[in-house]
């Protein structure tokens, strides 16, 4: 009962007291045990049977089994139904149990991880599942956080710690968290044991970026926010240890609150089969009623004359009652029209397709020894019907590796290589790298191919030296020298790490820093710069600057940022260089590279002193501090001199652009759902060719209120549909106008893209706006959602599932993708850098995004094609077989591949029939049924008519029922065997074995069942001795069989021939081409990445966060005993107060909602169209 009380209670606020388990237990908070599996030992049987009996056919067979137990109406043994039914249920149950076993195994692995918990005055190792709310736990470097904890203290100064949140938001850059000042000195076990603070906070929720609470301790209260929380799924980095108080545990942690539930997934064919089974059952009842009425009429008019030979049983009192019993008898006899063998065959077929996926060597990734894996066998044909793909970005489309690729310095580009004819040469793995052996401190993993840049460095080109000096000074990277020359950079973003590493290799090595100094090794010479100020990055400024004093006493400002921002602050004398650099930036942007512009400024000593006094004052004011600092930053960052620009490649996984292009040709829509910032997500969109400069419009939705989001969505939709005139009658008329959007979707030729951030998406997913969002998104060729939470990813997938009725596929590699993977019809996990959480929750898994192309266009299409062909043939065969009994009832008194894998990839349009559900639907089922009924009619009446006039070779008539039955059965087996042979697209040894083997087995069983030997063993069950031998020895019988076969097969053959010749499908055309090219051998499709021409746009994308600069200058993130002893000038007077507001400012992670430079222009940004914002 405690379980129900705990779940029925709605928690309004949470009370957690440290080191007080008895106090916390009375609230019945969730423990730290997690469960992602569906079943346990007690619930497996009832839940699994409930899921299986959602198949109407399974329920139908149970009813049939009950009928067969009644002897008065059953003409078949109940074993004929119960054995195959139990077999089907058992096979499915074993498969489901196996899938769930792996989920249990994963849960146990997580639950049994060890954590150090403070219990009774000492640290004790406890399993994660035994950690409880209110416990104080210790974390060590590189450990996963066990629960949602309040940071109390750490090994770092001022209670700071660094975490990586890749499993939560997909970002691998480090984030800073800091304990309250009052608890930051609780590092001693004794002090922690005495800590009895109480936290009152919000109840469990799924908001990753929000936490509100208060700590009550020692008669004081202290506000708590998200910056003081370490969430489950984070990893502690660059911090030796920290202690935390558990606030939320287990399923109530924010990570688990964002994970969707494991649901029972069924394919669209399964759902269609349920409907068809109901139809067939209705048809079966109709046949039973017809035959029952016929039996009643026959018994009342004719049957009474035969009662001497066929007397009624004791319970048969009237012809009507006889008809009633006949109805149920025929329900049992004709039950094969919905055979249970169909479901056995379907499961075997799916199992075979799963093995084809597992065995596909073209989906094997040798670098990590990872093969593709079908983790479920029930969704294979669904892979051939996908219309929407929802993809994560980091680790799925990209490798999350930043590489310094090219640069422009003083009007000259570096990074490309040319041959002796001055033609650009493509860089491959075999291209020789630049030799950095002149630099003993270089990073051996760094690769660059243009030797001209090294030569410029060696020739002491002043512009080149200043360029790399800026990269080595203007950043917030923390160095760690584990041994002499063994430098490790801890970068807050991968972009910064790539730039500082580039400067290091080109001879400007960032060696050490203190709060007041930065030490470089410039071409082998140690140089120390006095750090005077850091003008920190934020999403509005889109730049960062440092002010340093060099050994010569000169004061310099170095700045890097978005090109549009830097260019607006250049000295007019730099105009020519700016235009040249701008052309280079266009070229870099055209190649999908992430760019930054670099500039510097020489500062006058007196002017700087005046500015510093203003800055000191602004840093201490209480009101509008941020605005005043921004004005001062703007003041000094004017009149800059341009140095050049950098171009960083966010390395895509191999084959990503080609895969996306190919899937687009198959009419599959790909939406990117990522936790990254807007600029980064858009940049990857351009790299993947999902976004292009020749698109008609790129709509950027980045508002913070419902009204603004609604306006932007409606404006974009009106723009696409050409409805720019706003109706004076209001939204009602517009709703009617938009009611036919589905028609417009098919006719829009122009290409549009939609980019929406997390704040706007939260409003757009509300009930009153979700239809507008979906309509707009479906009108766009590309959709990118950035800064989204795991739950929002699932909500977007659910929105499409609910309103579009399309098959969806979600693909990702991290724990933040698990929710959408579970929500989509098909979930695909990539075994990447972010752990195995996505793989464990997925239906299919492999190592590289490019394998998705083969999974869908080859295996998915083949699975769907084979399943549809199989079902069409199966229903045809069964109706042909079963309805022979129906026709017989009137005379017995009513007693009762296509194309290969290369062409599948070469012609993605072949995938479209699956999306449109053309190969097996209600119409196809009706046609198969009609063909089966026609065949059954011919199978019965051709032998019936022939037998009425035929005689044996000895002159006697064919008068016995068994000869007639053998003739019809043999004709049936031969007809359906010929039909399946005609349906074949490839003949292999396996085809021959099963088709001709089936005929051989039929004749062997037929002769065995009517042999002397079997009669001797079971005389009552097999009384018809020699019937088959005598019947099939007659030439006339074989002529009847031949005639029946030809008449049954030829009409279908003629229709198929004429349809392929006069109305060929794309599959028919490709198959014809395939046969023509057979001698040429298979040719792989060559979808080369098209280099796009770029209009003027910024390729700026810098995944940096505000606040790190102030942490550095405050010295709060540095251990003083590890700082190298380098001579440094005295600290300037302002340094003690320069960062007084560091810890008061939240480490905001928000998407930029404008592209302008600030000031008055900001107020006009809402009036710009998204395209204007994009091209500014």
TrEMBL record:
Reactions this protein catalyses: ATP + H2O + phospholipidSide 1 = ADP + phosphate + phospholipidSide 2
Coiled coil: none
Family annotation (CDD domains): P-type_ATPase_APLT_Dnf-like
Cofactor: Mg(2+)
Any one Gene Ontology BP term: phospholipid translocation
Top-level taxon of the source organism: Eukaryota
Location(s) in or outside the cell: Endomembrane system; Membrane
Transmembrane segments: 53-70, 76-94, 276-298, 318-344, 925-944, 964-982, 994-1018, 1038-1058
Biased composition annotated in UniProt, kind: Polar residues: 1114-1136, 1153-1176
GO MF annotations, alphabetized: ATP binding; ATP hydrolysis activity; flippase activity; magnesium ion binding; phospholipid transporter activity
Gene3D superfamilies on file: Calcium-transporting ATPase, cytoplasmic domain N (3.40.1110.10), Calcium-transporting ATPase, cytoplasmic transduction domain A (2.70.150.10), HAD superfamily/HAD-like (3.40.50.1000)
Keyword Membrane in annotation: yes
Isomerase in keyword set: no
Active site: 392
Major enzyme class: translocase
Domain P-type ATPase N-terminal: 16-82
Residues reported in the UniProt entry to bind ATP: 392-394, 496, 537, 560, 594, 674-676, 787, 793, 816-817
Domain P-type ATPase C-terminal: 897-1065
Enzyme Commission number, as recorded: 7.6.2.1
Family per similarity comment: Belongs to the cation transport ATPase (P-type) (TC 3.A.3) family. Type IV subfamily.
Name assigned to this protein: Phospholipid-transporting ATPase
The organism of origin for this protein: Larimichthys crocea
Lineage per the UniProt record: Eukaryota, Metazoa, Chordata, Craniata, Vertebrata
